[in-house]
# Entry
Amino acid sequence: MSKCVVHWWTFLQRVMKDCDALYAPLEKHIADSFLPALFGSPLGKNSTDAEIVRDLTALPVKFCGLSIPNPTLSSLEQRSVSHACCSHLIQAIRGVKLFNMNDHGTSVGQSKATYLESKAEKLEAKMEDFLGKLSRDKSGKAYLARTIRRGCKTGSWLSSFPSFVNGTLLGCQEFRDALCWRYGIPCTLPKSCDGCGKPFDFEHSQKCLVGGMVHRRHNAVRDELIDLFRTALGKSRASPEPLISPGVKSIIDSGMKESGTQHNIQLDDLDAMRGDLWVRELWNDRMDGIIDVRITDTDNKSQRNTSDPMKVLAKHEKEKKNKYQELCLAQRRSFTPFVVSCDGLLGREAGLLLKRLSELLSAKWEKPYSVVHCFVKTRISFAIIRATNYCLRGPRIPSSYICQSVQWQGGSGLGLYRSQ
# Structure
């Protein structure tokens, strides 16, 4: 919608004076029909939250919005900006000045820069004002505002065109679920989990281990990283599940035997420790890299009291480094934790890794870094959304409840089938 229809009414607002009232029926249809249909549910738990969510959707994506502006509020602004950009052209038409293409270009550029600078400040103030008005829970915590504020950094998937070739496709239900997560709107879910039988909600879906959905979510993001690194470096230079420290336990044990000493270190699991992705010469030409992926729900009860979700991700990164970094450095390998939230918020290390991946792809494809980095972030954003949706919509019911295995070993058992 922001790529086509909005431009139509924006053009009319630039050339027509005082036309805000004419767009009232359009805004009513957007708020009462279009947005509820887009979300697949009401916009909030109450009318106040619904109005605020509508106000938020009018903001740009990087300000937690959907770039669906309210046409009844933008007419004066659009007309004034258009008038400022065309000021030299208007004066030339009126005969006040001689038209000069360079002067016209300068006028347009300066007017746009001034408008965009003031617009960013206004949008930031509007966003904070809207978030401050959202309802709070019984303890007075602004969890809903905390969830929506993350949308400033997780909207890459909203700014791209659907494309099978580029891997930017979402199903109807996936898209609606992602919108509901973005604005903290409850979506239609079963009352109980089909795997463990406990009450089912978004938080439970992301932590229930029955059915292997959490493991599948993890592997989906890992596989996306592998695919991108193999595209950048070649299939032989990136592989999944590398050993962190192969043979370390036997080396330490033999060393202790030779010296006649004993140790209390638990080394039984060292040889089995694995990362998620090995990349040859990841950061430089002399050191391979190990990457380990973790996806966490920053809104679950154990983590949502931390005001800044980035601190939650930093805590998980530190846990990963404490566990693996020293062992990797002993093997002359770098270690990078790839920690992200369920809605696509990237940890600091994950952001740096995607920048490095973008550099490699930019050099290979000979394309601008900014374009490639946008593509990489968008691919990862879509992968995380699809992976999170596995946990929300995927079946957890045990296979033994669905069908019965064959009860005989030899072919003579078919006689039981034929006799019925």
The two ends are 59 Å apart (CA to CA). The longest strand covers residues 287-296. DSSP finds 16 helices and four strands in the chain.
